Amino acid sequence: MSRSVLITGGSRGIGLATARALQALGDRVAVTYRTAEPPADVLAIRCDVTDAAQVDAAFKEAEDAHGPVGVLVCCAGIAKDQLLMRMSEDEFTSVLDTNLTGTFRAVKRASKGMLRARTGRVVLVSSAVGLRGEAGQSNYAASKAALVGFSRSMARELGSRNITFNVVAPGLTDTQMADKLTEAQRERLVDQIPLRRLGRPEEIAATIAFLASPQAAYITGAVIPVDGGAGMGH
After folding, report:
1. Closest CA to 27 of 8, 7, 9, 11
2. How far, CA to CA in Å, does 43 sit from each of 57, 58, 111, 169, 170?
3. Which of 9, 85, 104, 211 gets the most CB atoms within 10 Å of its CB?
4. Which residues neighbour 224 within 8 Å (Cβ) at sequence distance 6 or greater?
5. What is the end-to-end Cα distance of the chain in Å, rounded?
6. Cα angle vertex 153, ends 148, 156, to 5°?
7. Which family is this sequence assigned to (predicted)?
């Protein structure tokens, strides 16, 4: 059955790979973007998730085109890496506003329709960094770790309405964010991964697609690492 899907931050990387995976399954997919131009073959909606009015407008456009959103995937996120002693308050709070509060805005808006339908799938994209920590990424790690508590609270809050909430925690993945690393940084990080390579966006997308599928109907409140083993034990 074709579903209405909205993916925040879906114009590239993991978000776009997820859009492709769900389109291949027959779903009607809309993605939001802020700056990166999305491909022409997906319904792309400009939206800054730090603005509640823009989030509401994005949902309305997706719903007008595809019907009530039954699957929400929250991929929108930013990083502003810096050592704590050099990190400004804006560098800390802006990352949390996008990665955590932006997710809150999208989930709150999606839950209205899902409650009426008495069904829904929500998948939040966290990070292995949110589970194991990383020097120079205290803001990013805090925002991604918080998604776990948020998702599990929502799983308890809305589980009786057949709405599931799950978290995917990717490790270092071959996206534009990884492209910003120097060769030395990349080698150091890959050495910490038991599989000794970066993940591919399609590998993360496959896990998200499973969690959004009918086969995962009895999975909620889970955190699934897709990180090549980098976060084992966390």
Report:
1. 7
2. 14, 11, 21, 26, 25
3. 9
4. 166, 167, 168, 169, 207, 211
5. 36
6. 130
7. Belongs to the short-chain dehydrogenases/reductases (SDR) family.
| Residue extents of the structural domains in the chain | 4-172+202-226
Residues labelled catalytic: 140
The fold adopted by the segment(s) 4-172+202-226 is Rossmann fold (3.40.50)
What is the model's pLDDT at position 178? 66
Share of the chain above pLDDT 90, in %: 85
Q: Which residues of 19-32 are buried (b: 16+ CB within 10 A; e: fewer)?
A: bbbbeeeebbbbbb
Residue 116 burial (C-beta neighbours within 10 Å; 0-12, 13-18, 19+): exposed
Least confident of 35-44, 52-61, 63-72, 183-192: 183-192
The single residue listed with the structure tokens 């057949």 is 162
pLDDT digits (tens, 9 = 90+) for 114-153: 999 999 999 999 999 999 999 999 999 999 999 999 999 9
What gap in Å lies between CA 69 and CA 53, rounded to an integer?
A: 17
Spatial contact of 126 and 201, defined as CB atoms under 8 Å apart: no
Helix (H) or strand (E) holding 75: none
C-alpha closest to that of 103 among 216, 9, 187: 9
Task: Reply yes or no on whether the pLDDT at 183 is more than 70.
Answer: yes
Give, as one character, the DSSP assignment of residue 199: B
pLDDT of 176 above 80: no
Q: What H or E segment, with its residue span, contains residue 29?
A: strand 28-33
- Identity of residue 128: A
